[in-house]
Amino acid sequence: MLRRRCCRVETRPGELESDYMSVFALADCNNFYASCERVFNPDLIGRPLVVLSNNDGCVIARSNEAKALGVAMGEPFFKREGFFKQHGVRVYSSNYALYGDMSQRVMRTLGRFTPELEIYSIDEAFLDLDSFGARDLDDYGREIRRTVRQWTGIPISIGIGPTKTLAKIANRMAKKFPEHQGVFRVPQPVAGLPRAPVIPGLDALLDRIDVADVWGVGRRYAIKLERYGIRNARQLKDADEAWVRKKMTIQGLHTVLELRGISCLALELAPPPKKSIMVSRSFGRPVATLTEMREAVAAFAARCAEKLRAQQSRAAFLAVFLMTNPHKDEPQYSNILTARLPVATANTPDLIRLALDCLERIYKDGYSYKKAGVMLSGVEPDATRQLSLLDPTPRLAARQNDLMRALDSVNAKWGRNTLHYAATGIGRPWQMRQERKSGRFTTCWQELPIVR
DNA sequence: TCTGGGGTCCTAGGACCC
DNA sequence: TCTGGGGTCCTAGGACCC
User: What pLDDT is stored for residue A346 in this prediction?
Assistant: First the structure.
C-alpha cells in the first residue's frame, strides 16, 4: 500500500509554495508483527521470534533478537527451519486479524495527540504537530510513546522533522540508537528563504545515512546513484535539481527538496478511494482441477466485491489471472483475461459470474496451479458513476443493494464469511497454509469459552 | 515439499486525429 | 520522389512503498 505523493510544490523550481514551518512526526511500531505476538504471549519477550508470510513462505517480521542472529527479511522459511530450531527461534504464521486490530488500537491512541493524523500503513502514522510548536517537541514525542506503550503494549519509535522525508530519517535514528530512547528530532529551520532553509546539524546527520535508506530511494535508484558517486543522503540532498529530475523523475526531485527541509508531501488525512482492487493468493497446495479453481476464483471475486463496497465504489472491468509455480521444474502456464462488466457494479453475484466466465476461457487442464487472483479496475465512486441504459431497474438495483448491505453487516458483526456464496466453496482445500498461527486474541468471541 | 500480497505514480512510445 | 506539427489517449514498463 502506498499513498505517498501529494504535492504542495509546483513542479517548476522557483515556484514553490512556502510551507517550511511544518512539523511532522512519524510514529512507527517497532517490529510490529513480532510485538503483537508478544502482547498476548509474554513468554516471547526477550526471545528471538519471526513471523512468516502467507503460506508460511518467508520471513516478513523479526524481533530484535532474531535480527541479531542474522535472520534477514524475506528469507524462505524452509531454508532456515533447521537454524531456527537450533537457536530456539519461535516461529509464527501471520495473523492479520490480530495485527489489524492492534493497529487500530495504536492509531486511535495516536489520534489523541493531534487533530491531524495520516495512517500510512498498518504500523506507521504521520502526525501533524504544527500547532504544538510552543511545546517541547521531544518531550511531547516521549509522552506519545509512553502512552501508546501503556495503552496497547506496542513499543513505537518517533521521528520528528520539518518534512515527511526528514521525519522518516529521524525515525530511523530513533530506532537505531537506543540512547535516543525512541524519540529523535531533526531541528526546524532557523533561518533562510523558503527555498533554502537552514537546518543546524543537517549535513552531519545526512552524511551518516545511506542513500538506499532514504524514503523514495529503492534498490534500483540506489545502484544508479552509486554509479554517479552518490552514496549518502547528504550527497543526494546536494545533487543538482535538473539532473535529479531527469534521472529520477519528479518524485526524485521531491525527495531531494524534502531532504533540504522543503515540504513537498502533505499529510493525507482521508485516504483516497482505490482505483484498482486486487485479491490474489498463492495456494496452500497446488490446484489442479477446474472445480477447485472455480471456488478459489469465486472467493477472490467475492472478497473484491466486499472491498469495493467498503469504499462505496463500483468497478467497470474485471480480470482473472492464474499461474503455475515458476520455482518448479514442471510444465508452466500463466494467463490473464480482462473483461468489461455490462454496467459498473459492486454486486457480488455479477462479479462472481463474470470472474468464472473469464476463468473458463483461460483455464487449461493438465497443470498444477500455484496462484490465482481477481483484479478490478475502472473503479469509480458510486456517487460520480456514469449512468447507463443497461443499468438494472431502480427497483432491482435497490433490492440488490439491500441484499449486499445485509450480507456485509452480518459479516461485519459475526466475522468474515459467516454468510457467503456457495460458489466460493466450503472446504476450501486451496486455502493458505498457516500452521503456526496464534489465537485471535482480540477479534473472535467464538473462541472464548462459553459460560452458561 | 516449501519462495507474500496489494497498491501508486510517472514516463515513453505508439496509435490516431486534425 | 517528396513526406509537418501538434495534440490526446492508451498501454506497457519501470520505479517505489510496506
Answer: 94
Grid cell for residue A201: 546539524
Superfamily grouping for domain A277-424 = DNA polymerase, Y-family, little finger domain (3.30.1490.100)
Residue A415: Cβ-neighbour burial (10 angstroms; 0-12, 13-18, 19+)? middle
- Per-residue model confidence (pLDDT) at position A385: 63
Q: What's the CA gap between A115 and A410, in Å, rounded?
A: 32
CA A293 to chain centre: 27
Query: For domain A22-188, which CATH number applies: 3.30.70.270, 3.40.50.300, 3.10.180.10, 3.40.50.740?
Result: 3.30.70.270
Q: pTM of the entire structure?
A: 0.89
Are A98 and A112 a contacting pair, CB within 8 Å?
no
Q: Could you read off the pLDDT of A32-50 as tens digits, one per residue?
A: 999 999 999 999 999 999 9
Residue A417: Cβ within 10 Å count: 14
Phi, psi of A344 (to 5 degrees): -55, 135
Return the bridge partners of A315, or none.
A345, A379
Helical H segments across A40-127, by residue range: 64-68, 77-86, 96-111
Distance A53 CA to B3 C1' (A): 10
**Bases in strand C with any atom closer than 7 Å to a protein CB:** 14-18
CA of A1 to C1' of C18 (A): 6
- What's at A275, amino acid-wise? K
Contact of A154 with A35, CB cutoff 8 Å: yes
